[in-house]
Write a structure and sequence with these properties.
alpha/beta, Rossmann fold, 4-stranded parallel β-sheet, two-stranded antiparallel sheet, 7 helices
Length: 228
């Protein structure tokens, strides 16, 4: 997997490598004030390129669900390798970025939740990491939303702040109140999805702080099949 740029050569919010000659990130979400951004930092495991990019696409769009076990192993390895960092931020709980799987959904299975189930199985007992595996999940998506692919940054922001915001629901605030929560996803692009999930977890779920943990960070200037 393609490693992230060294600390000091990448954004301290989204893990995007700086362009040549730059020392700041041009991503609009990263330029927001912390109280408006809602999340603290996205921790990416690697860049979205090469074998990892291929594997995520085959898993997410090609239905190769066996990749969940591999991604679960990668996730636990990353968490264990950075255990001191996550202890420093006081991480209490890891939740899945919610996916809609009901009528009209593009995918009838929750690809991120399956990675978490695999990760929990991989870590064994006693658990070192607390994953939200209860039913229903702490945060759910109650309906389909329009894909963000091909839209401008302004349109992606508007879509996130309307349709996505309205579709997110915290099922039980007692499970996140006063906790530091990480939101697991497969790819971080612009951060609009993470921002809305973090907003819901903090406003409705009472979380103290929210971080992102993603399998990959989208390189600058490239588009995903679906931007998030």
């Amino acid at each position: 997997m393609e490693a992230l740029a060294p600390l000091g050569e990448r954004c301290a919010v989204c893990d995007l490598p700086y362009s040549a000659g730059e020392s700041s990130c041009g991503n609009p979400v990263c330029r927001m004030e912390p109280d408006d951004r809602w999340f603290e930092w996205n921790y990416a495991i690697a860049m979205r390129s090469g074998a990892l990019e291929t594997a995520i696409s085959r898993y997410k769009y090609g239905g190769r669900r066996g990749w969940a076990a591999i991604f679960g192993r990668i996730l636990v390895g990353f968490l264990d390798a950075h255990a001191a960092l996550f202890a420093e931020i006081g991480l209490d709980l890891i939740v899945a970025s919610p996916a809609y799987t009901g009528p009209g959904a593009k995918r009838a299975w929750d690809h991120i939740r399956e990675v978490m189930v695999a990760a929990d199985r991989e870590q064994g007992a006693p658990p070192r990491w607390q994953f939200d595996l209860a039913e229903p999940p702490i945060i759910v998506k109650t309906g389909p939303t329009e894909p963000m692919v091909g839209k401008s940054a302004a349109d992606r922001r508007a879509n996130a702040q309307t349709a996505l915001r309205d579709a997110l629901s915290v099922t039980d605030r007692t499970r996140t109140r006063d906790l530091t929560v990480a939101v697991l996803d497969d790819v971080f692009t612009g951060g609009w999805t993470l921002r809305e999930v973090a907003r819901a977890l903090r406003r409705d779920g009472g979380a103290t702080a929210v971080y992102g943990v993603t399998l990959s960070r989208q390189p600058y200037g490239r588009r995903l099949a679906v931007d998030v």
